[in-house]
Amino acid sequence: MQGPLTRYLVTVALALASSLAVHAADTSFTLEDGAEMAWNDDRYVRLGGRIHYDVARYNDDVTLLEDEQDFRRARLILRAGYDDWQLRADYDVGLVDGWRNLYLRYGGWKRVRVTAGNQVAPFSLDELSSSNDLAFMERSLASALSPAMLTGLSIRTWGKNWTATAGVFGDELSDLDRRTADGTSVVGRFTYAPIRKRGQVLHFGIAHEYRSIDSNADIRIRARPESRLTDVRLVDTGPLTGIDSLSTTGLELMGILDSVRLQTEYMRMSLDGGPVDADFSGGYVQASWLVTGERYRYSRSRGVPTAVRPRGDWGAWELSLRYSMLDLEDGIVAGGEQTQVTAAVSLYLNEYLRTSLNYSRYDAAPNLDGIDEDGSILMLRFQAAL
């Protein structure tokens, strides 16, 4: 599936670029948000990217965690548009190399978007937010239960204060090495914001995934200690065989009041059929404050918070605190339980440059081996994105 889809989307990109060349006389070129060549209002080719360089220092306990530094993300991003069609192709050569977003989108109908290809499945407020805009360097422990990126077809629509998205998906193009469960998913998400105005948002969301597991395929749920620079997992179910399907429900709540944002999610996964009958759960609670007075913003068409825009010459400062948990213990499955508390400070120098410092303490009680342990992690990131 990966080969034909990749070739098809690359062919579309080349066709769009060729069409641009034909209209070269009417073409404009800018470097404001990446290198963009455009003509008319809805025909363009834009080249951008993101660099996330991380440094991690670990104070471990029972399980050895080695200090490391590397490119968390080093991603080249191609966007192209032709009338009502949009193409996006992201390729990463960082720690998780391979295709990320690789899709074709149609937007010719009012308040409707149809997307085909490798994309973030419509599940989880945290997953649907760009990695450039997250308050923390890594998503929470609970993200181990979310589908993240999958290849398939989705339809999204929205109104004044609501969004609805649904899709059918297979596997992802590049393995995140997080949740292993080959099969076919039906995923849907609905959000409602009864309060949505400048500087004030109250957001509710619910999402559900039903995934039919391929015959002879294993399921494995595991999580790193909120640091991608280590391959160590303190909680891990190990391969679970003979499972027919899984069902996961996610609940979202977020409030924005000018420069303060409160956000929480809870997820519960159930395994059905076969020799293993188990339920897993995860969630987080977090708070963020823009000390320099900027307002948090919200996308009504996607139902997610958007990028911070510094307003002063010295940038924007943000303080954040999060508590997260993941429980992979139920029945005969002894994958462990983990909690983690993370404090973060970020400096947004402008819309394109950011640096972050995260300090967290983890507690696995028990870990995947049935042993209690705790430790701490200090991480630093330098970020540039267009």
Key phrases:
single chain, mainly beta, 16-stranded antiparallel beta barrel, three-stranded antiparallel sheet, 2 helices, 23 strands, globular
Per-chain topology:
Layout: H1 2-22, E1 28-30, E2 35-39, E3 43-59, E4 68-82, E5 85-92, E6 98-106, E7 112-120, H2 125-128, E8 149-158, E9 162-169, E10 179-181, E11 183-197, E12 200-213, E13 219-223, E14 235-236, E15 245-257, E16 260-272, E17 279-290, E18 298-299, E19 304-305, E20 316-330, E21 333-348, E22 353-364, E23 373-385
Antiparallel strand pairs: 1-2, 2-3, 3-4, 3-23, 4-5, 5-6, 6-7, 7-8, 8-9, 9-11, 10-13, 11-12, 12-15, 13-14, 15-16, 16-17, 17-20, 18-19, 20-21, 21-22, 22-23
Description of the molecule:
- It is a single chain.
- By secondary structure, the chain is mainly beta.
- Helices cover 6% and strands 57% of the residues.
- The chain has helices at residues 2-22, 125-128; strands at residues 28-30, 35-39, 43-59, 68-82, 85-92, 98-106, 112-120, 149-158, 162-169, 179-181, 183-197, 200-213, 219-223, 235-236, 245-257, 260-272, 279-290, 298-299, 304-305, 316-330, 333-348, 353-364, 373-385.
- Strand 2 (35-39) and strand 3 (43-59) form a beta hairpin.
- The chain is globular, with a radius of gyration of 21 Å.
- The protein starts with a helix and ends with a strand.
